[in-house]
């Protein structure tokens, strides 16, 4: 029993020792180019390493940028001893990775939207404003089938953006196929700075596809009053 | 036997503390994380959204009129606001009083120079894990919570000022 245990511990020790040696050798090979001009064999080994980020850059780098293999050679001539090419390629690599992360984030967002709000049950409510001389928007409350689904307070900047032509996605949710009723309440300041509260209702049929509804705030110039409509986009 | 029961009691305490911390996370859990966004009506009737102050250092103070420490802190914050407003500091006082009318009367009586927002719903309090007031939070220019403090005692304003100066320099 004792003999077996000793043998096992010896094997482990030698394994750890070998692993350490291998790690030291790898570190020495990869660290050499950073210190100074590498010999050709080391440069080849570096370009052959698939995981090295610097070696991967020249394939995607623009024509004007220095390739990684030539960077250490340039470095020998630099008085500071720091290879500027390496920084450039590293920066390019970071920029590329940032771009990839943004792309991935966008894809994930689209996927999440598709999963959470599948087209066959999706209902989206948008808000738009035209002119707005007779109404300063403060808040909108949306009720679907008598249940409040959204209450939104508008800051001055948001209201201003709507006046400039922005369209806001106010609510995104799921609804079963069939008849539904949407009621929207608009509050704000009406003509002559008076508190104003109005409602608009629509009964719509939710089909198999997605449903898009637009809450439109417009001015009725002849009556000097704002007008609130709900448009059903098929 | 006695030792076993002692261990059990200790385990029970530890478990209880763990559950309590999970149910009511301390505001410190917000540190280093983006400040939960909110939009609230201010005393002058305008709506203010926290995320619209991105690029400025924001000090958010949750208070209630019945809280003595909050009453002490409000004039101090008013002084800080007057001093550092031009340097890029925004102070927002959020009243969590359910009675908006009384909160409004109280805040107007204090004649504060910074905007006071009225929160009558429990959502924002939940987002910020408010357990005790006043809760003072400092949000940096990128919208991340960098400092939080529960309660107020004279001298705390020095800590606030140190943190504010540090964030304004960034």
User: What structural class should be given to the helix and strand makeup of chain B?
Assistant: alpha/beta
Q: Nearest-angstrom radius of gyration of chain B?
A: 18 Å
Biggest beta sheet summary of chain A? 4 strands, mixed
Spell out the helices and strands of chain B N to C: HEEEHEHEHEEH
The helix count of chain B comes to 5
Quick summary of this structure?
The complex is a heterodimer of chains A (234) and B (170). Chain A has 6 helices and 8 strands; from the N terminus they run H-H-H-H-H-E-E-E-H-E-E-E-E-E. In chain B, 41% of the residues lie in helices and 21% in strands.
Question: Helix and strand layout, with pairings?
Answer:
The complex is a heterodimer of chains A (234) and B (170).
Chain A: H1 2-35, H2 40-48, H3 53-60, H4 70-77, H5 84-116, E1 122-129, E2 136-144, E3 147-153, H6 156-163, E4 168-174, E5 178-189, E6 195-206, E7 211-220, E8 225-233
Parallel strand pairs in A: 1-7
Antiparallel strand pairs in A: 1-4, 2-3, 2-5, 5-6, 7-8
Helix pairs in contact in A: 1-2, 3-5
Chain B: H1 2-23, E1 39-42, E2 47-49, E3 57-63, H2 68-84, E4 89-95, H3 100-110, E5 116-118, H4 123-127, E6 135-139, E7 145-150, H5 156-169
Parallel strand pairs in B: 3-4, 4-5
Antiparallel strand pairs in B: 1-2, 1-5, 3-6, 6-7
């Amino acid at each position: 029993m004792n003999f077996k245990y000793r043998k096992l511990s010896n094997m482990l020790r030698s394994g750890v020792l070998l692993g350490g040696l291998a790690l030291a050798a790898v570190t020495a090979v990869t660290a050499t180019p950073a210190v100074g001009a590498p010999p050709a064999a080391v440069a080849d080994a570096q370009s052959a390493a698939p995981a090295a980020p610097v070696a991967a850059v020249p394939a995607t780098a623009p024509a004007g940028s220095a390739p990684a293999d030539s960077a250490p050679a340039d470095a020998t001539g630099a008085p500071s001893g720091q290879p500027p090419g390496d920084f450039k390629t590293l920066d390019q690599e970071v920029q590329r990775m940032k771009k990839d992360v943004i792309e991935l984030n966008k894809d994930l967002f689209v996927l999440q939207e598709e999963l959470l709000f599948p087209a066959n049950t999706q209902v989206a409510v948008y808000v738009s404003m035209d002119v707005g001389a007779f109404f300063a928007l403060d808040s909108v409350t949306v009720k679907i089938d008598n249940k409040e689904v959204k209450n939104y307070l508008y800051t001055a900047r948001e209201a201003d953006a709507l006046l400039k032509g922005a369209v806001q996605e106010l609510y995104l949710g799921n609804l079963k196929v069939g008849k539904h009723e949407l009621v929207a309440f608009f509050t704000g300041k009406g003509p002559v700075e008076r508190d104003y509260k109005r409602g608009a209702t629509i009964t719509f049929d939710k089909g198999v596809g997605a449903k898009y509804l637009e809450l439109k705030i417009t001015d009725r110039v002849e009556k000097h009053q704002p007008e609130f409509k709900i448009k059903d986009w098929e | 036997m006695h030792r076993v029961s002692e261990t059990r009691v200790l385990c029970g305490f530890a478990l209880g503390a763990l559950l309590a911390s999970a149910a009511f996370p301390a505001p410190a859990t917000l540190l280093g994380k983006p400040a939960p966004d909110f939009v609230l009506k201010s005393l002058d009737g305008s709506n203010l959204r926290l995320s619209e102050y991105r690029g400025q250092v924001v000090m958010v103070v949750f208070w209630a009129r019945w809280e003595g420490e909050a009453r002490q802190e409000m004039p101090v914050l008013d002084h800080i606001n007057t001093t550092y407003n031009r340097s890029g500091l925004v102070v927002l006082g959020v009243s969590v009083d359910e009675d908006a009318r009384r909160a409004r009367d109280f805040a107007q009586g204090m004649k504060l120079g910074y905007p006071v927002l009225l929160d009558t719903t429990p959502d924002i309090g939940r987002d910020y894990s408010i357990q005790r007031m006043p809760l003072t939070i400092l949000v940096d220019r990128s919208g991340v919570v960098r400092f939080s403090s529960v309660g107020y005692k004279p001298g705390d304003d020095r800590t606030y000022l140190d943190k504010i100066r540090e964030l304004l320099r960034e």
